[in-house]
Amino acid sequence: MTQNNKEINSHGKIVVKFGGSNLKKKEDIFSLIRAVEFYNQPIVIVVSALYGVTDQLINGLNKVTLSESAICRIKDELIESHRQVIELYIKDSTSRSKVISHLEQRVEELEKYLRGIHCLGEIPEFVADRVLSYGERLSSLVLAAILNERQIDTKEILPEDLGLFTNGEYRNATVDFALSEQAVSQGLAGNQNYIIPGFYGLSPQSKVTLLGRGGSDYTAAAIARCINAQSVDLWKDVPGFLSADPKLVDNPSVIHQLTYNEAAELSYFGARIAHPRTFEPAEAKQIPVRLFNINDFTPQLEPITVIGKQGYIAEHIVKSVTFSDDFGVLKLQGAGVGIKPGIMAKVTGSLTQEGINIKSIITSQTTINILLSRADLENGLQVVNALGLSTVHQVSTQQDISLIAVVGEGILEKPGIAARVLGAVSAHDINVWTISAGASNVAIYFIIDRQEQETAIRSIHEALFGSPQVHVSVAPQNQEDYYNDHSYAGSLGYVV
Ligand code: ASP
Ligand code: MG
Fold it and tell me: What pTM was estimated for this model as a whole?
């Protein structure tokens, strides 16, 4: 790195991300403004779409292929919901009409893509990704205007103008740091606030590519890495990471500190509090990821959970038990499948070629269990059947399952954790289908029938954490989004 780059790379700003859960009701933006003011220094803001807008666009995509009138409906709904926000926050009528006219222009851009889809009668994937990026494009436009109206000098920059590049994979792209780092760092070097729509970057061919559902967290961490930020602050409406889903367990404790690995595994296995890939760019530059609860903030900006390099081994080792229902098993059975060379390469190669993401693989001598997103299961089955592998006697799927994971530093070193967890589960006669320990240093996970999921989580939590924790510091208030946001799976639910 040249001396010049070093300087550019060390502006030490904070990247602050506000998600859809901070943008549910139009009144929520008051809290957002207050948080921005508390920083009292120039920050880089990354925003999600207003709550529900991405889902609305996904539904709209499918509708416009069939119906032309759906285009106007989508347009009107988007203008209306954003206009209501503008009207609440921008009182001056001249500025207000200016912002509304910018909003309309941006929605007209979107309209062109929707018309294209309607004419074609199908949705090319590059157009789908572009369309779905409009939720963030609209929220950033509106929020930039609101902040400026309040004398909080904020410049909006779109990822394409900033030079945030990806590997080009549609729907679920990875940020390409070699291509992005310098441009992003230079683009954000000024002494003012910036606001950037999250959720997408540009392919090397300059096409919009989405970063997966919930991808604005990942955008924030990626930008933080590019500018070597002081921290990535994720504002949520839940009290940080918890020892279990508050809907299933009465007294989950709040986790104040996690390592990057722990947070990544928890997110990957179902805790929807942050996009699982958020922690990769942060870890690359050892940037702390701090979680804040917008409903519970202090002027000292005290984070609830801090994710970083520093870890600790908890008294019970396990810090959290989590689950995901977005797993299905593709089972390949046959004597010796586990030791015959080449099978795995063929299978994984074909699945990847079909764009199917393999979430995990657990093998034995006679069975290869491939864990996929549920949405990919049928397609996966067809792909493997089409290979006609002679050593595989049966290919089947298992659908109604739940994956349960227990996560904590030290989990593999301390004997007896798996026994305790499985003991708690078997005490309720729950059958464990498959178990994996050792694939990750900080997680053990296993598969059970979905209908047993609640009982399993409760009994494991009870066995490990006992009755109410004394160190509960923040009672969960708004529990809605802890698990019940969208799926982070690659599948975006539209047909391409
Ligand atoms: N708006 C996008 C989604 O709903 C991205 C995000 O929320 O981070 O998935
Ligand atoms: Mg979100």
Answer: 0.89
